[in-house]
Amino acid sequence: MARLRSARARFDDRLTLVDHLDELRNRLIVALLALGVAFALCFWQNPLLLDIANDPLPADTPVPITFGVTEPFFTTVEVSAYGAMILALPVVLYQLYAFVLPAFSPQERRTITPFLIAMPILFIVGVAFAYFVVMPVAVKFLLNFNDAEFDINVRARDYYSFFGLMLMAMGILFQIPIAILSVTRLGIVPPEWFVENRRYAIFIIAVVSAAAPGGDPVSMFMIMIPLLLLYEGSIAVAKRFGRPREESLSTEVSPGEAG
């Protein structure tokens, strides 16, 4: 059995296709091991995880109910899987970072490394925003909408799926600043491009917000507002820091040409 590669490849390494595939396999194994350990931890602590998931429900709402013999088990597995993906994300992102970074030159690496470090931070911020802000408001609205006409009970499978997808979606959507700053910092597009295409961005953000878990007007509004603020804030930061760094004259002009 091939030994896991412990050292990250360097920019000037000359690797064959087999070496790249071997590197990719090793990174995938480590990422899957991290997910497995995180899943085992979440499944072991599933009562705590379910209590955390139930917290956004109104205080007078009974605990979610199930309708089948196997539903409690598979619902617990689903909740544990969502928790594992959130916990293991830093390790998974690092493996991705370690695999793709050798493809960049040292200068490009210095440019993109801060963004790669910020990815898990923004993901956690997005998850926290969904948990503490979006979920309580959205759940309260949905459970109280036309409640006089229905005998409302919360089904465990549906609620926990909604809960997990909402947290994951917000964590991913909060990567907007990373995408904007990366493409501007690398010189792919200028910051002005995002200003000129703002109307299209607003439309796309509205569509994404409507397609997010929930789909109700309150959830759409709660998701759309921070995404618009992130978009506008990213443009402002990109104008200030996103332009490719200019090389100094001392590095462009050789000592013999200076005179």
Verbal overview:
The protein is mostly helical. The chain is built from eleven helices and no strands. The longest helix has 39 residues, at 106-144. The chain starts with 16 loop residues before the first helix and ends with a helix.
Gist of the model:
The chain is 72% helix and 0% strand.
Topology, please?
Blueprint (H helix, E strand, L loop, with lengths): L16 H28 L1 H9 L16 H30 L5 H39 L11 H18 L2 H10 L5 H6 L1 H14 L5 H25 L7 H4 L2 H4 L1
Comma- or semicolon-separated keywords:
259 residues, mainly alpha, 0% strand, disordered N terminus
Q: What is the end-to-end distance? A: 61 Å
State the low-pLDDT regions, or none.
1-6, 246-259
Q: What order do the helices and strands follow?
A: HHHHHHHHHHH
What kind of sheet is the major sheet? none
Mean pLDDT figure: 80
Radius of gyration: 23 Å
Give the DSSP E fraction (strand runs of 2 or more residues). under 5%
Shape summary: flat
The total of helices stands at 11
Helix content: over 70%
Number of E-type strands = 0
- Assign the structural class, choosing from mainly alpha, mainly beta, alpha/beta, alpha+beta, or little secondary structure: mainly alpha
Oligomer: single chain
